[in-house]
Give the backbone structure.
Amino acid sequence: MSLKAIIFDLDGVLTDTAKYHYLAWKKLADELGLYFDESINESLKGVSRINSFEIILEENNASKNYTDREKEILANKKNDYYKEMIEQLTPNDILEGIVPFITEARNNGMKCAVASISKNAPRVLELLNISNMFDYIADAALVKRPKPDPEIFLTCAYALGCKPDECIGIEDAQAGIEAIHAAGMKSVGINVSVTSVAPDIPLKSTAELDFKILSRFG
Ligand code: B16
Ligand code: MG
């Protein structure tokens, strides 16, 4: 196999933090009298914090009601709610199949990295107690262009010392699949709501992850 590395998204792939993002945005939206539901939350997957808030405001035709500084302060407020909520995470919240899959990949000499645009990723990995399973964890604060730009996946490949075509990316968001393909990598999608580019290997859930499926990439 010419593959040398697997690059994982975090939210929706290693654990399901979408419900906490939802609850934190919902709390803020209720305080501000903005409409927010699960379907809007779906469109925030893989989207940066400030862009997520912009989407919520646009859904409410309220973007012009706030200055950029106010938007930043309110997005930070959501983050305070989110940070408080994720403290409940434990290793039991790692999604099914993830630990055996990473263990087998590592036993087969594959390098592993995390490409999450969440600035809370290091804390989430710590709470899940899996930080040491990864050779590299991208620093979201240093990423200039969010997914679907390939920057974060290319940063991971470079840090691992691998060429993009030696890496596969695993993502649950459409923007993430686009970022993986733009990086020149192969993709595995976890329950992706496909609106444009489809993943090379679409799976319904992480429980279907099996090291053997990677042989499809040659
Ligand atoms: P934070 P991922 C993304 O993480 C989430 O999918 C997205 O919903 C969230 O807005 C974004 O991280 C930023 O997160 O506010 O914690 O910095 O899917 O790239 O792991
Ligand atoms: Mg995700």
